[in-house]
Backbone:
């Protein structure tokens, strides 16, 4: 699962340092919002062709670590 977290990047110059998917200008926050609003994985992947299914799972795993109070960077850098 740590391999999924390697898809999550942080760049202070992009979206104020929010967690991103693979340095794209697509935030974890946006992916989670789309899913919460009922968008399907297929719809998201069609709307954002640069994304891969693993990116969506990485966003959900990132949210899990944040809610659990765990440090994401420890898993990304490892």
Residues:
């Amino acid at each position: 699962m740590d391999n999924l977290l390697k898809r999550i990047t942080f760049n202070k110059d992009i979206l104020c340092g929010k967690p991103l998917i693979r340095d794209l200008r697509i935030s974890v926050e946006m992916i989670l919002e789309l899913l919460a609003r009922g968008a399907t994985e297929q719809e998201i992947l069609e709307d954002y062709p640069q994304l891969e299914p693993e990116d969506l799972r990485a966003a959900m795993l990132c949210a899990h670590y944040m809610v659990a109070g765990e440090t994401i960077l420890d898993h990304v850098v490892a």
In short: The longest strand covers residues 8-10.
